[in-house]
């Protein structure tokens, strides 16, 4: 009996020793081939924003604004027209032209370059109190050092050790992966390429219908932006401004509720040397009635770059004539 027990224990230990590496191998393979889980996406998202926020590089083109900018403009596709430029998408959720955003723009723009530009994506929300507060940007800037190091330098390791259940493994084997109809790619340069398989072009209208209650466009925010524009142009920085493409219904809703007077803002910015660009809203499609689908964002990025290229020399000539 003792001999049997001893043999059983020995065989059991040998099998365990063999089984553990096999199981570990299976888990490693699963982690490598499994599609991103929710936890994986959270780390990807957080790492993207930390990298964007704490980037120390200087850029010749800084494109800024709210979520219509960070989802709507691809620096890489702009570079297809504006080759040789360093471009950053400095868009943040519900961002506006308060002191904190203007400070970030000044930190990123290359004041030493003679071809630097600030590109202002101006939405009604970006000139409200909510926009001025820049809660998303503030949150990112307040990141603790330990979290920052983890997300910037150990992202892949963190993603590898995300726990998963055997039911999740079973779903993957059966082809029932972690599904979401909204696909988001967090890309270098600050763009979040977004594709919604089931677009609903009135989805955002409901939330925006109450967004401007006690949250109107503020004259103080317009004044601050106009002043900053004048300071940039005086330093030789070209400034372009535009209203990011969205749906006609959204434009009508925003204009009726926010107190946004685009023609007045345009005139005041142009008086400070900015060039205001116009785009046809119906050329592009959104996934929610507010933000551009990936393919439209690519198209718009190229349209924006072409508009900048076409107006670049005239802006330089205007600046030079004022300084003669």
Automatic annotation (TrEMBL):
The keyword Transmembrane helix applies. SUPFAM superfamilies: SGNH hydrolase. It comes from the Bacteria. Keywords: Membrane, Transmembrane, Transmembrane helix. The chain crosses the membrane at residues 16-34. This is Uncharacterized protein.
